[in-house]
Amino acid sequence: MDALKISAVMITFNAQANLRQVLSALSFASETVVVDSGSTDQTVEICREFGARVFTRAWSGYGAQKNYAIEQARHPWILSIDADEVVSPELAEEITALNQLTPYAGFRIPRLNHYFARPLYHGGQYPDLQLRLFRAGRGSYNQRPVHESVEVDGPVGLLSGEILHYSYDTIADYFEKFGRYTSLEAERLQAAGERPAAIRLALRMVLAPCWKFVWRYLFKLGFLDGAAGLLAALLNSFTMIVSYAKLWEIAGKNPPGAKRPDR
Fold first, then answer.
1. DSSP strand E in the chain: where?
2. CA angle, 20 as apex, 134 and 2 as ends, to 5°?
3. CA atoms in the 13 A half-sphere facing the CB of 84
4. Strand partners for 3
5. Which of 59, 97, 102, 144 is least surrounded by CB atoms within 10 angstroms?
6. Rounded Cα–Cα distance for residues 156 and 36 (Å)
């Protein structure tokens, strides 16, 4: 029985750091499609070096950008990968063993997150299942501002091979992404109808982050991942605090019924 014909799709922006490793691991795919949003480093050159079909498109948001990449695919199955994610050899072998008779419209894949070059198996970080392999025309990304995900029409199976996610190589790398992600999360919270009243802020910015840390680090055994597990639990809690602080800031700039004074 014929193996699946797969288009690996990816969006990029100044992603050269891990790109050769990412693209090399996709050699089993029938093609690789890259949608770049104006990289100024060697991202585009590296993608072409590996034979990828590269499209340039102004940034339109994570979900929209990834859906555009999916639309450029030529084959009946889509494997969506981020530019800091590597398909493990075990996952590549598992995917290539699939055939056209599979009853599933898509597959969830375990993702092994790495913080500061260390894998996280605890703290609620694993298996971090991601729906990334799916039939063309049966799946697309939702439009959440951040943490977008694939929605599939049909039954979904589960693979055991892993995507290796190199989330943050260094502390500096974490904080370079931190500002962007917390701003997007604040926008998502506002769109979802969250209101930063004082009591709600106390809950969201003090009690909830403290509980989140205790849950991840103690109850979900994050301490077993050593210093990286401690930092992951702390930084995840800090992300919640800053996201709600930014929501409060947004609301303060545009309070209900307020009018800007004439200047």
1. 6-12, 31-36, 53-56, 77-80, 85-87, 106-109, 111-115, 118-119, 130-135, 139-141, 150-152, 156-158, 163-168
2. 35
3. 18
4. 99
5. 97
6. 29
pLDDT in tens, 194-233: 888 888 888 889 999 999 999 999 999 999 999 999 999 9
- Does the global pTM surpass 0.85? yes
CB neighbour list of residue 228: distance below 8 Å, 6 or more residues apart:
115, 116, 118, 120
DSSP secondary structure letter of residue 101:
T
Q: Tokens representing 16?
A: 């050269």
* Buried b / exposed e along 58-72 (16+ C-beta atoms within 10 A): eeeebbebbbbbbeb
Residue with tokens 């530019």: 83
Peptide bond into 76 cis (omega under 30): no
Domain count, the chain: 2
Same domain assignment for residues 147 and 242: no
Identify any residues that bridge with 134 across adjacent strands, giving them in sequence order.
Answer: 78, 106
| Residue-by-residue DSSP string for 128-181 | --EEEEEETTTEEE---SSS--EEESS-EEE--S-EEEEEESSHHHHHHHHHHH
Q: Which domain holds residue 204?
A: 170-253
Domain boundary among the residues 167, 193, 216 is at 167
In this structure, the answer to whether residues 22 and 151 fall within a common structural domain is yes
pLDDT digits (tens, 9 = 90+) for 102-138: 999 999 999 999 999 999 999 999 999 999 999 999 9
Q: Is the dihedral of CA 68, 72, 78, 79 positive or negative?
A: negative
The tokens describing 75, both together, are 């084959």
Q: Which residue has the tokens 């604040």?
A: 186
Contacts with 180 (C-beta within 8 Å, 6 or more apart), sequence order? none
